[in-house]
Amino acid sequence: MDFINKIFFKKTDDSVHEQFVRFGKGIYPGRAVIKLQKNKDVKISSSFEYSKDFAVLICELADKMSVNGSLVARVGIPELGSVKPKGGVYDYDLDKELTSSELKSLLDKAKYTLLNIKASGVEFKCKQKLPKPGKAEGKVDDKFCQLQVDMKYWPIIRKEFFPDISEGAKRVNIKHTYEVSRIVIPSGIGEDYEKLRLLSKRGGKIIRILEIDKQESKKETDFEA
Questions:
Q1: Which end of the chain is more exposed for a tag (fewer CB within 10 A), N or C?
Q2: What average pLDDT does range 193-198 have in this prediction?
Q3: Residue 153, Cα to own-chain centre: how many angstroms?
Q4: Is there a contact between 159 and 2 (Cβ–Cβ < 8 Å)?
Q5: How many CB atoms lie within 10 A of CB 73?
Q6: In this prediction, what percent of the chain has a pLDDT beyond 70?
Q7: Contact 149, 125 (CB under 8 A)
Q8: Global pTM?
Q9: Each residue of 119-131: pLDDT tens digit?
């Protein structure tokens, strides 16, 4: 399940928290954009927020895959070799064949991923440079991630990314507004400001705006992550 739906289904975890670390109090429109086009196959494009969620999804769709790109983690991953941390993170280049379990193990340790992945009936492309923080609404790159898969995978994709749309929907555009109204600071951290920034939770409201076959609707939920 992607990070937005985890919020709506009250299943927030560390992967959801990681999505909000860079946000302070404020209103952030036009975030987490995802688009679906369904015909003979399934095509999805999205903004950068979904890059890791797509990689996790592909682990459910394929047993083995070709992977290239970069994976960034807050801790070292010995099985990927030795790299020096830069800016508090470890940046690894990947170009190899992996099983789904091998990739899933790496994703569990990743902060974010910029991976291109190919498998039988699955092709995923991701841009290799993260967008600059603070991009305004209307400038979000909604083709940062692009996934094309066989129609047989639609039931899994719908469950994980589009649980609130009908089975027969053909074209879907979704975007979100984050309303961060509070920062929940953990106790016992002292004055380690970087650790406070990383561990503090953000709370407020998520507004989900859906356009399904040209019909628009809206839903919202409170969150803390």
A1: N
A2: 86
A3: 19
A4: no
A5: 21
A6: 97
A7: no
A8: 0.91
A9: 999 999 999 988 8
Q: How confident is the model at residue 137 (pLDDT cuts 50, 70, 90)?
A: low
- Measure the N-to-C terminal CA separation of the chain; round to a whole number of Å: 16
The three-state DSSP-derived secondary structure of 63-120 is CEEEEEEEEEECCCCHHHCCCCCECCEEEEEEEEEEEHHHHHHHHHHCCEEEEEEEEC
Q: Cβ of 52: how many Cβ atoms within 10 Å?
A: 25
How many CB atoms lie under 10 A from the CB of residue 29?
Answer: 15
Tokens of 56: 């996790």
What are the angstrom distances between the C-alpha of 217 and each of 33, 67, 168, 210? 15, 37, 17, 5
Domain definitions of the chain by residue range = 3-224
**Lowest-confidence segment of 50-54, 76-80, 156-160, 180-184 by average pLDDT:** 76-80
Are the CB atoms for 176 and 7 separated by under 8 Å? no
> ∠ CA(178), CA(183), CA(187), 5° rounding?
150
Under DSSP, is residue 185 helix (H, G, I), strand (E, B) or coil? coil
